[in-house]
Amino acid sequence: MKEESGWTEERLETLKILWNEGLSISQIGQKLGVTRNAVAGKAHRIGLPKRQSPISVSGTPARKKVKKVEELSELPLRLALRKISWSRSKCVWPSGDPKTTDFSFCGESIEPGKPYCYEHCVLAYTNTRENN
Predict the structure, then answer these.
(1) What crossing angle do the helices spanning 25-32 and 36-45 adopt, rounded to 10°?
(2) Strands 104-105 vs 94-95: parallel, antiparallel or unpaired
(3) DSSP E strand boundaries for 3-101
(4) Which contiguous run of DSSP H or E holds residue 104?
(5) Residue 41 three-state SS
(6) Exposure winner among 5, 66, 85, 123, fewest CB in 10 A?
(7) CA distance 51 to 34
(8) Tens of pLDDT, residues 58-101
(9) Exposed, middle or buried: residue 79 (CB in 10 Å: 0-12, 13-18, 19+)?
């Protein structure tokens, strides 16, 4: 991909418009003739809002932490993740993408001697003797 040199005011304005329209970083890069890394870097430097990762789809259902997630989303990620509470007596099955503020742990009571609740123990541990 041929990169044009410099970010003109016109190209910056186009970047902002495409970003707000929800185009992917790669799509914006193609339209502007720059790499996706150039777009990501410039977006970060000019303070455009962060995007949700397309990879962060969780296989587990959302838990009851809606209000807490809204409060945490106001904080920078490194500070928001410090606010996640966990205990050795609570299930530590992860939920969500740890790179986003919607990350949490299950929090249900654990099975004795295990780090997970019953539901997550069933998912985490298999017994090959039962399959024979």
Answers:
(1) 100
(2) antiparallel
(3) 94-95
(4) strand 104-105
(5) helix
(6) 5
(7) 19
(8) 444 444 444 454 555 566 666 666 666 667 888 888 888 877 77
(9) exposed
> 22 is written with which tokens?
């929800």
Supply 56's token pair: 């962060």
Q: Counting every residue, how long is the chain?
A: 132
Say if residues 49 and 77 touch (Cβ distance below 8 Å): no
b/e code 40-78 from CB counts within 10 Å (16+ = b):
bebbeeeeeeeeeeeeeeeeeeeeebeebbeebeeeeee
Cα–Cα distance, 32 to 57 (Å, whole number): 29
